[in-house]
Amino acid sequence: MNSDKEKMLEERIDFLRTMCKLKGMRVTPQRIEIYKQVANSCEHPDAETVYEAVKEKMPNVSVDTVYRTLASLEDMDMIFRVDNQLPKARFDADKTPHHHFLCVKCNEVYDIFLESDEKIELPKNAERFGEIKDINVQIRGICNKCLQEQKNKQN
Amino acid sequence: MNSDKEKMLEERIDFLRTMCKLKGMRVTPQRIEIYKQVANSCEHPDAETVYEAVKEKMPNVSVDTVYRTLASLEDMDMIFRVDNQLPKARFDADKTPHHHFLCVKCNEVYDIFLESDEKIELPKNAERFGEIKDINVQIRGICNKCLQEQKNKQN
DNA sequence: TCCTTAATAAGAATGATTATTATTTAGTTT
DNA sequence: AAACTAAATAATAATCATTCTTATTAAGGA
């Protein structure tokens, strides 16, 4: 039962080890486990969710470690912060270029992958302001599930 | 000295009055003043900045009123929250379609206006997820001012 | 194995935002 | 124009995500 998914996760963790060494950072079990949780989830978890999941395996882990580690993983571009205009930050470990659909009703975050020929153009004027690091496209609306629930209520 | 800018601000406040009545909301001096502050600024102020500015004219205004009013102005699409991945929310009353350049060094927010022939395309798959309300393009990087400062330090 | 120092756990502190409650007032009705 | 009523407000307490402090632990090199 060593599925493709598990094999891929192992590869990603190896990459984390490499990156840590490269940046002179220690490879701690907390770092591994916290990264695992984000990398293995499609739910764009927030810090608290990660904390709860990690606590299952490491009951003594502290909230602070989770926040600190998420921040350092972000610094080394291993994970990204999903822009959600909400008080809780949410994280994503998927490095394939994609954007997000954010439901304003239920706050669910959906991944929008671009088709192979597709590319979001930068505004022509963007470069005038400085050196661009990344572009973040957030599409807000009401997701199908919530639209359906609205309809059901009306009947 | 009744400049164009002042005239335009008056028009916008009239629009606010109309919108409030339309939505059955009361037109209070606090609402007018808070909206004025956001509408009259190009700085994408945060709640505290708005609060300080409003306090000049209305010394008894409360923080809570500022937060509550900013939220209701947002609900009625009179102002928008600028996505900045920072703890303090910042607001923008400019309804002409534009995006933002956010400096990761100094947290300054710059407006990126599209040229007349320009339009940011939605990802083809975006509509699959639900009903789209708005699209938010945030470009993060280091602004010219901070780049310059970096150069100066190196010498 | 020892040593150095980065990383951690625990819990206190911070800071932005929101809730509570008594009071005021906008806008309507008399 | 006075009275009414619910929405909005001021004041302050509370909340909640996140960060800081400090003593302790452990990763990785010597």
Summarize the structure.
The structure is a homodimer. The first copy, chain A, has about 160 residues and is α+β, with helices and mostly antiparallel strands.
Main β-sheet, spatial strand arrangement of chain A: 4-3-5
Q: Spans of chain A of 5+ residues with little confidence (pLDDT < 50)?
A: none
Question: Helical residue percent of chain A?
Answer: 40-55%
Order of helices and strands of chain A: HHHHEEEEEH
Radius of gyration of chain A: 18 Å
In angstroms, what separates the terminal alpha carbons of chain A?
47 Å
Largest sheet of chain A, in brief, is:
3 strands, mixed
| Greatest interface by residues involved | A-B, 40 and 40 residues
SS summary, helix count of chain A: 5
Query: How does the helix and strand content of chain A classify structurally?
Result: alpha+beta
Oligomer: homodimer
Strand content of chain A: 15-25%
Q: How much is the average pLDDT of chain A?
A: 93
Shape of chain A: globular
* Count of strand segments of chain A: 5
Description:
Two copies of one chain form a homodimer. Chain A has helices at 4-22, 29-39, 47-57, 63-75, 144-154, and strands spanning 80-82, 90-92, 98-103, 109-113, 130-143. In chain A, the strands form two sheets. The first copy, chain A, has a three-stranded mixed sheet with strand order 4-3-5. A two-stranded antiparallel sheet of chain A has the order 1-2. With 155 residues, chain A is of the alpha+beta class. The A-B interface holds A 81, 83, 85, 89, 99, 101, 103-104, 110, 112-115, 118, 120-126, 129-147 and B 81, 83, 85, 89, 99, 101, 103-104, 110, 112-115, 118, 120-126, 129-147. β5 of chain A pairs antiparallel with β5 of chain B. Chain A binds a DNA duplex (30 and 30 nucleotides) through residues 24-28, 30-31, 46-48, 60-65, 67-69, 87-89.
